Amino acid sequence: MLFKLTDEQLMIQNMVKEFSRKVIAAxxxxxxKTKAFPAENFRQMGELGLMGMMIPExxxxxxxxxxxxxxxxxxxxxSCASTSVVMSVQNSIVCESLLKFGTEEQKLKFLVPxxxxxxxxxxxLTEPDAGSDPVSQTATAVKEGDSYxxxxxxxxxxxxxxxxxxxxxxxxxxxxxxxxxxxFIVPKGTPGLVVGHLEDKMGLRASDTTDLIFENCRVxxxxxxxxxxxxxxxxxxxxxxxxxxxxxxxxxxxQAAFDAAVKYAxxxxxxxxxxxxxxxxRFQIADMATQIEAARQxxxxxxxxxxxxxxYTKEASIAKLFASEMVNKITARAIQIHGGYGFTxxxxxxxxYRDARVFTIYEGxxxxxxxxxxxxxxxxxxxx
Length: 384
Ligand code: CAA
Hints:
Layout: H1 7-34, H2 39-47, H3 66-79, H4 81-101, H5 104-115, E1 121-124, E2 140-144, E3 147-158, E4 165-171, E5 181-187, E6 193-198, E7 209-220, E8 224-225, H6 231-267, E9 269-270, E10 273-274, H7 279-307, H8 313-338, H9 349-356, H10 366-378
Helix pairs in contact: 1-3, 3-4, 3-6, 4-5, 4-6, 6-7, 6-8, 6-9, 7-8, 8-9, 8-10
The structure holds acetoacetyl-coenzyme A.
Residues 89, 125-126, 132, 134-135, 158, 178-179, 232-233, 236-237, 239-240, 313, 362-364, 368, 371-372, 381, 383-384 line the site of acetoacetyl-coenzyme A (CAA).
């Protein structure tokens, strides 16, 4: 491995690997069928410090670096992608947004229970008609006395049902474009916040994805995150970190599919020998190993830049673009190596293939990553 991990990073990786392969993997295939949310697993992950890894200890976190975080997230994704997406959203766009933009009071009230894993959080940006273009969102927040009244529908919200706190964006000034979007902290149970349609998805089936409907939902002014107009910036900076997370998730699933394919190739016999002896399979294995290693280095590189507090928007998008496209190729090849068996639910590669499909879509499609990367490279911004 080119990137040299520290003893502490290796220790975290090994600890999470052992937990993930023993506890998370045990029920992953079953939960893919039943769609059961792994609440007990998240409780244990909270105890291990995995739900607010990069948050300072004083706010309930582990104060780990971003490299340790991507190692841990990859190990969880290796066993269960549904579990890893909840971990990713919680650690990055939820906890980090509160850390970066929250007041001391908001941190103590909301960040501490989130980072310690006592509760799950959600980030609600996307709407039925505003996905890649969040500036066109139509949810509104109108100031009335000492509160804001939020109206609108958010869509495809990870942990929409199982979260206890939602960070939601809404327009406070219709005429100000991205500077008219603000972000609010809304605890579940607030009158006017209703969980809507639960999506029946191709993959990530044990992670709930729902609509969240805000109907005259009133929150105190103290629940605005940052200032009025900061909402788009909060979402974009949260997504920078989130995109490294989705890349790490892609790496974990790719590694799982690759390991399964190698194992199968070494045991499956055709034409008198293990299929791993055939060059057609060996070359595929070589290509898969190369792609996975390239993604790993891009992820470490982006995470290290984040740790050094350097700007890393472009590198996060590069890692996300490459890793999410890579895992789709790797999981497809893993099925090919398994032949007909790979097409059945008796082998995990079928689940990996379905889970991986959304990685090039959520937290910014591959097309959006290319816009972000080319804007940074050319330094003359083109609109989508
Ligand atoms: N960090 C902080 N601020 C940023 C930023 C970043 N990475 N990127 C942009 N900004 C700021 C800019 O500085 C600018 O602010 P000022 O004008 O005040 O200086 C402002 O945001 C607008 O910047 P741009 O003009 O560059 O933005 P844009 O309008 O051209 O849009 C975009 C950029 C890349 C297309 C963006 O809209 C985008 O990323 N779209 C995709 C959205 C997305 O990823 N959605 C996924 C939903 S979340 C999800 O999937 C959740 C889940 O549950 C898994």
